[in-house]
Amino acid sequence: MAFTQRTRVAMPGISPAVLTIIVACTAIFILQNTPLGPVLLGNLALSVGSLITGRVWSLLTFGLLHANFSHLFFNMLVLYFLGPRLEGRMGTRAFIAFYALSGLIAGIVFCVWVLLAGTPQIWVLGASGSIYGVYAMWALLWPDEYLLVWGLVPIKVKWLMLILVAASVYMLWLGEGNVAHQAHLGGILGGVLWWTFTERRSRRRPPLPPRSGRRMRMRLVPKSGDNRFEELMRDITD
Q1: What is the DSSP letter of 65?
Q2: Cβ(170)–Cβ(93) below 8 Å
Q3: 158 and 144 in contact (C-beta within 8 Å)?
């Protein structure tokens, strides 16, 4: 699904982190369609086997790979429309950390799920986990903002988030298709965790006390015997 923003405020231009992610994912997708493709998949895609063999970096790098052009296009389209506003609010460093955390939690949830399901040979790739984290942050920060589904149907972000969660749970229960719905739910969990321990906590944080140190006192009335004051007053009255 493709989503565009419907808001009374103009969308900001593309932000640094969002641009970097889009360029990186696009470049790697191009390389996937060269003789280097099998090497990239073998080293960057995530599976239980990749972790057992020591490729722990795959918990993050699997989000740089994509199965096909539509997979890449729709993930990057959502990031292009929703990412800049988040990055503008959070700051570039925090946004990168949040984006990576959402992908990391998505990868962990996926691995735990396939282990419990007895299918550890299944592997996963794609930025969808981080993208679902972006959806979650939007739903938590701006729940009443409207998005246009397919550019036509307006829906509040909070209701869209509920639909996405319900759809992922339902499809996971059916067990059909080759979409990692458990990774989507993991990405949502990552967004919720980031909001809980950063955004929500910062709202509850009490104001900082005055800085300790030497107090500055302003003397409005001069001390008796202050020659400089007496000289100043003499100059004024003369």
Answers
A1: -
A2: no
A3: yes
DSSP string, 155-174: EEHHHHHHHHHHHHHHHHHH
Q: Is 223 left (phi over 0), alpha (psi -120 to 50) or beta?
A: beta
Give residue 97's pLDDT: 96
Q: Tally the domains of the chain.
A: 1
Alpha-carbon torsion angle 128, 129, 131, 136, nearest 10: 140
C-beta of residue 66 within 8 angstroms of C-beta of residue 33: no
Give the tokens for residue 17.
Answer: 């982190």
The amino acid occupying position 94 is A
pLDDT at 51: 94
- 179 inside domain: yes
Residue 58 lies in a domain: yes
Q: What is the mean pLDDT of each run of 10 residues along the chain (238 residues)?
A: 39 84 97 94 94 94 95 95 94 96 96 90 94 95 86 86 92 79 95 88 53 41 47 46
Residue 126 falls within a domain, yes or no?
yes
CATH label of the domain that carries residue 113 = 1.20.1540.10
- For the chain, the farthest-separated pair of C-alpha atoms sits apart, in whole angstroms, at 100
Q: Which domain holds residue 21?
A: 3-204
Specify the amino acid at residue 51. Answer: L
β-bridge mates for residue 153, sequence order: 149
Residue 73 lies in a domain: yes
Phi, psi of 170 (to 5 degrees): -65, -45
